[in-house]
Write a structure and sequence with these properties.
Chain A is mainly β and 778 residues long. Chain A has 5 helices and 49 strands. In chain A, the strands form 10 sheets. Chain A has a 22-stranded antiparallel barrel. About 3% of the residues of chain A have low confidence. In chain B, a hairpin with a 4-residue loop joins strand 9 and strand 10. The chains are: A mainly beta (778), B mainly beta (332). Chains A and B meet through helix 4, strand 42, strand 43, strand 44 and strand 48 of A and helix 1, strand 1, strand 2, strand 3 and helix 2 of B.
Amino acid sequence: MKKNLLFQLIVFFCIAVSASARNYTVSGYIVSDKSGETLISAAAVETGSNKGTLSNSFGFYSLTLDEGKVNMRYSCLSYASVSVDFVLTKDTVLNIRLKEDNILEEIVIVADRIDMSAKSSQMSAINVPAAQIKSIPALFGEVDLIKALQLLPGVQSGTEGFTGFYVRGGGPDENLFLLDGVPVYNINHMFGFFSVFNPDAVKNVTLYKGSFPARFGGRLSSVLDIRMNDGNSRKLSGSASIGLISSKLNLEGPLFSENTTFNISARRTYLDILLQPFMKQASEGELSAAGYYFYDINAKLTHRFSDNDRLFLSFYTGDDVIYANTSDNNFMSERTTKTKMDWNWGNLLLALRWNHIINNKLFMNTTMTYTRYRFDLGIRHSQESRYTDDGDFDTQLGYKSGIEDIAAKVDFDWMPNPDNEIKFGINYINHRFRPGVTAADMKDSESGISIDTAIGDKNIRAGDISLYAEDNISISKLLKINAGLHYSAFMVQNKFYNSLQPRLSMRFLLSDKFSVKTGYAYMSQYIHLLSNSSISLPTDLWVPVTKRIIPMNSHQVSVGAFYNLNDFLDISVEGYYKTMNNLIEYKDGATFLGSSTGWEDKVATGRGKAYGIELLAQKTVGQTTGWIGYTLAKTDRTFDRKGEELNFGKTFPAKYDRRHDINIVVMHKFSERIDISATWIYSSGNCATLGMYKFEDENGSEHIYVNERNNFRYPDYHRLDMSLNLHKKKKYGQRTWSFSVYNIYNRTNPFYVYPSEGRLKQITLFPIIPSISYTYRF
Amino acid sequence: MKTIYKYITALFIAAFLCSCENTIEFDGEAGKPKLVLHCFLYSGEPIMLTLQTGKFFLSNERIKPVRNATVQVYCNDQFIETMKIPNDNDYMHQYFGNFRPRPGDKVSLKVSAPNFEPVDCSTVMPQPPVIQKVDYTGEVKRDFYIFERFDEINNIMVQDTMYQFDENYDMICHISDPGNIRNYYGFSGTHYVFCYEDGSKESSPININSNDIVFGIEESELFDSQENRHKIFSDELFNGKVYQLKFDYNYTFFNATNNTHSYYQPYIKSRECHVRLYSITEEHYLYLRTLEASGNDSFFTEPVQIYSNVNGGIGILAACTSTDYVIQMPVK
């Protein structure tokens, strides 16, 4: 019976695919006329038959049509549409250049209307152009990609000011961040105040919250696919920006010819440089240098060998650095004591990608990647005497941890006919986990002690392989299906885990402007982030699953309705229900700070569920654009396994369970010279655990009695931010003054609440904060 | 230039200082005071408990003893007695009873007091643990000193001998664990019993050292360490088997004699090492573990929920039984 069914399916598939036998294919790249950048999710539609497709992540499209007269219409947001009439008599390569639409230039789009429109089978995904991210008011004027995404329904920030990312009730380690297809393990700078993604280097961002296509895997809650700019192939261009805490520089252009382009972006904070003289003064000369800074460098080199072959080399490096050097000269004993401390942590990413068009229906993308996150701490304390070595010592302590991946993958896009868009591929990752090693090197001349040792866990290696296949099938005008399978296997320490993950999403197009969609996704995750707090610490450690801690998995079902109101307003309503298994949480009182030793004993495994409704109404045309997002959500956890009970086995709200989230974003362009934007954010208070009673134990010691985990809600959170941009054309480009005010009505939002002397005290981190920045684009 | 620096610094300092602290109202129902009950049942010993108030965390009132409560004791669901505070009790919140629980007894308490929600709790006395044997190896360094002292009875100077014992022992306690059920143990009761020449006895506790895996003690590295102060553990790793619990101790004691009466203390005739193992209830285990963990919590950890099996209140009704394995030790 099963064999028979399988045979019928294969026959159906072959018929569906071979139905294109007498047709011809139109294919090519869709690029920006101004910069030569490939355009992602640009639409290619044959107006007569109303058949269409979207360009993939590399701007490539392929559409198979009946022979004869065709009218191709190419369009992309913020670009003027182009129509091409011709008679299709053979397979045709048509590379299209779209001009930026000056009339609509001010339009800032929240979500790609075509991709997210009623017609697409994809749901629970949002495509965000970089321009939109840059328009949103930001803390200290520092535009941040992650904070911009926090304004979308279904995405919750954690603590105020931080780049916490909690999607549909999931934890912070359940999100896959891909920068040009390379996983980024630590997305935070400055303990989470800023993310590592420099908006100047970013072309496009797509966030998947559910109904994950089969090509993605490895995390339970979301996939954030960030694509870097390839570089302007027409001319040298760029921008320089000076802000309150950092400066940025972006350069891009052709290298030798139009076929080779580069794009490089860099930024660095400079608070440490500005404060240096004061720190020296405050320490009365003892402190020779101290400070904190972070930097990012994004670079991309693209070379086009021919219309069929392109090579990309992407690079990112970014570090946070804390340093302190002290020196104390004792004139009496003529001894000098020196202390030198360096903390460095950050990512290094490298990707080499080859795009090859095998034929006009088959696109191949081969990628080799390297990604590394590392945390290094070094402290050196030494004492030297001028005349004798009595009492001299030299002590060095070091701590290193991190994760390193080397990966290779091949992805294929096969578009046999307009009714089938097939993607398949294979991916292998070799993980190397460095769970934390402490090294000590001590020499003491007085006691004669000399120690050179290293303590800590050995590196753990793991193999992670995944295969996938998905087909975006148009069954009829009414029904479109995206069905796929994702298989993954994980090998670590002689343990083998694998899972077969079905993915399905269906669209029922009830009219040209109204559709109902539903989707299901099963996800599995083999790695965990050991983190102790709601803020990101550099000591947070990635660890693989073990014999005791088995992989997490989730099932998510989503249902939604999508309506386009007169090409003026896109309205969507989505509901979801997600269950998560084998989640880990720290046991009561367990602490983790940089050592993975015995971490399995410190965590409990349990399950969780999350459900909610997300509303998004977005206006994408006109001088005034923006959106209103609302999320009604609930998520809880149950840890009732024997010996691993949390909250005594009773269900409790998850740490970032919040009932209501409202985000209103409005942008208005008065003229070419002036535009403003404003965001208003409201959310229910975060959960916290408070001891509700005080009592004395049998020995008379006072204790706090906690009746339930996360039993207290912080006050509601809300704030209004505004920004004003003043542009002016200059001789060689355009300058922009940006003024922004964070928390304009100075709401004292809770960062931390604690009881003191019979009252509840609330710490507020960010009052009203004005900022200014200057940008020059050329 | 310095002026610019000053302005910038002032701007940042102002921003972070403005990240101020303010008082907020508690948006919830203020909790009424709760009864806090602590009762530790020892097999064969009379029952005793303490009752206090547990105050709402924002209340400024002091924690007070509760002396006007009615405390009823039940054994195997049969009413036994009402506990009382003796008139001469210095600790006015201690209630005493005559009931002596035995292994296997289900002991329940029902407590009511004016202005408090009534509370109840129950537990089952565990069976005594089984120590098959205790192996020990080690060395005793013995030394003696002869000295003179004044004998006040006979008004003469006498010679006396002082023996010093420096003991280092490695011990293995063979615990036979009953299968099928989860058992919990406490191992903090190892001690010496000194039997003096005059017939008196004295008990002296010994501090043992053990990094046995059952205690879940973590080696301290750069950042963290974990204790098990109460030396409690479960049979999770050896359910239904005989487990060899390893520990060691260092002990020094002195014994002075001239074959008459010691000036300092009576001559020690014999000496016993009692290796004591407790069988404790799951509630007792959870209470002690969470109580200990609550002392170690920090900004980075989830607050610890101290276990309580007192319905409607706070505290613990715990029970334990013990077994001593006696080893005769040298005195000379």
